[in-house]
Design goal:
The protein has helices at 13-17, 21-39, 46-68, 73-93, 101-119, 124-132, 143-173, 176-203. The chain is mainly alpha-helical and 217 residues long. The two termini are 18 Å apart. InterPro entries: UCP010219 (IPR016566).
Length: 217
């Protein structure tokens, strides 16, 4: 075995956690919902029905495109079901702002789950990255990696808390247009910032002689 062989560099978290496609996919139904709701001039609940239909149609179109590109059917189906569920909630309550209710609940639950994962030393970032790299749970036998993933996971807790701080006041005010705008613009930005922050937080937690996230010790 060649001791001088250089190990391949660690992949960036951005490449492991996905690119821009997911953000675009999630934004299309939201933009359609808000645009149609704001533009359709019909007695209530006409705008809500048209907006919900547009959101679901947009999600179906996105799903068809991603399936044709070879995306995993399970991921595509989850995205489509999420939009359909959001539309169903809004139609059931008759309140357009409730199209965003499931996302608010999901953000709160996600913040809690990420926080608990850090406390119990099963940081979700490690679970996700370890799964992508095919390591299963081998990374948990490496105390340095566990500590690094714990530290980096705080960035994800923070972004869910920021989401709630932005979304909850707008939801309570019933401001559908601003909810849609913030959802479309802020969510991808917050995810991007979390990815950018996670990598240095993780790497600086590892000792200088650590072989990297591909090679748990």
């Amino acid at each position: 075995m060649d001791r001088d062989r250089v190990a391949p560099p660690d992949p960036g978290l951005a490449s492991l956690l996905g690119g821009r496609a997911g953000a675009v996919d999630a934004s299309v139904p939201v933009v359609l919902f808000v645009a149609v709701w704001a533009l359709v001039d019909l007695p209530s609940p006409g705008p809500l029905w048209w907006a919900s239909g547009a959101a679901v149609a947009g999600a179906v179109a996105v799903a068809a495109v991603r399936l044709s590109q070879g995306r995993k059917p399970r991921a595509v189906l989850f995205g489509l079901l999420g939009v359909a569920a959001a539309a169903t909630v809004a139609l059931s309550t008759g309140r357009a702002e409730d199209f965003f209710l499931l996302q608010l609940v999901s953000n709160a639950a996600s913040a809690l789950v990420w926080l608990v994962s850090i406390v119990v030393r099963w940081p979700l970032l490690g679970v996700i990255v370890g799964g992508v790299l095919g390591q299963r749970t081998r990374w948990r036998r490496d105390p340095d990696l566990v500590r690094g993933y714990q530290r980096a996971s705080w960035a994800w807790v923070a972004q869910y808390v920021v989401r709630l701080a932005l979304f909850v006041p707008l939801y309570l005010a019933g401001d559908v247009v601003l909810l849609g705008l913030v959802r479309t613009v802020a969510s991808p930005v917050l995810v991007g910032l979390s990815v950018l922050a996670s990598w240095p937080l993780l790497r600086t937690a590892l000792p200088g002689d650590h072989p990297g996230i591909r090679h748990p010790r």
